[in-house]
Design brief:
20% helix, globular, two-stranded antiparallel ribbon, alpha+beta, eight-stranded antiparallel beta barrel, 229 residues, single chain, 4 helices
């Protein structure tokens, strides 16, 4: 009996190891996919990586405009070297397109307005962002969220970054500028047009027809802040 007992005891460790090996490993949380969008502009292509894990509302809003074909035929209407390039609302003749309702600001998401990031442009109200966006040409940390006391401290919500084509953004920013339409200055000359925009892996959207607002247009620039300095 003692020999049988010893043999049984010797088998226990290997049996335990086999049980552990058969036990399925814990499944790691699935990573949130980062969709990519390509803006095909008159100066070249710009590819963006978006952050739905940090800015879900901003990303969903931007993607919907892309899928609707809204950005096709719009321009970068504001370019300030050493600061930003902004667009997403105005047509080639600088008429504002009709937008969907504004979204809640996500500027307190922990992301900073560093060079190459893209953020939601808005008016004085932090929760007034619609279709407009801007590229940070430098580290614009003064545009980051610092508190909810006012629109000035609220900052601007970063929702993605340029992963290819930052040279196109820089080239657009380096163009001469002029006053045109409702803008006193900072309009690139020639105009930088977004011909089409599409989500990578999806069929390009049919461009939405241009529509002018039924009510007074929003503030012309919807600018994140005044000129640098």
């Amino acid at each position: 009996m003692s020999r049988f007992l010893l043999a049984a005891l010797l088998l226990l460790p290997s049996s335990a190891l086999l049980a552990q090996a058969a036990k399925p490993a814990a499944t790691a949380p699935a990573a949130v996919a980062h969709p990519e969008v390509v803006l095909h502009t008159s100066q070249g292509d710009i590819t963006l990586e978006l952050y739905p894990d940090k800015s879900p509302k901003s990303v969903a809003n931007f993607l919907q405009y892309v899928r609707d074909g809204f950005y096709s035929g719009t321009v970068f209407h504001r370019a300030i070297p050493g600061y930003l390039v902004q667009g997403g609302l105005y047509t080639r003749d600088l008429q504002a397109k009709r937008t969907r309702s504004a979204i809640t600001s996500e500027a307190d998401n922990g992301l900073s307005n560093l060079r190459g990031t893209v953020a939601v442009a808005r008016g004085a109200d932090p929760n007034s962002g619609t279709a407009q966006f801007f590229f940070n040409l430098v580290d614009n940390r003064r545009l980051d969220f610092v508190g909810n006391q006012s629109g000035l401290t609220w900052g601007y919500a970063v929702f993605g970054k340029v992963i290819k084509g930052m040279d196109v953004v820089d080239k657009s920013a380096a163009l001469p500028t002029r006053g045109l339409g409702p803008f006193a200055g900072d309009v690139p000359n020639p105009l930088v047009v977004i011909d089409t925009a599409n989500v990578v892996g999806e069929e390009p959207a049919t461009p939405a027809p241009a529509q002018t607002p039924a009510s007074p247009a929003p503030e012309p620039a919807k600018k994140p802040a005044g000129k640098k300095g």
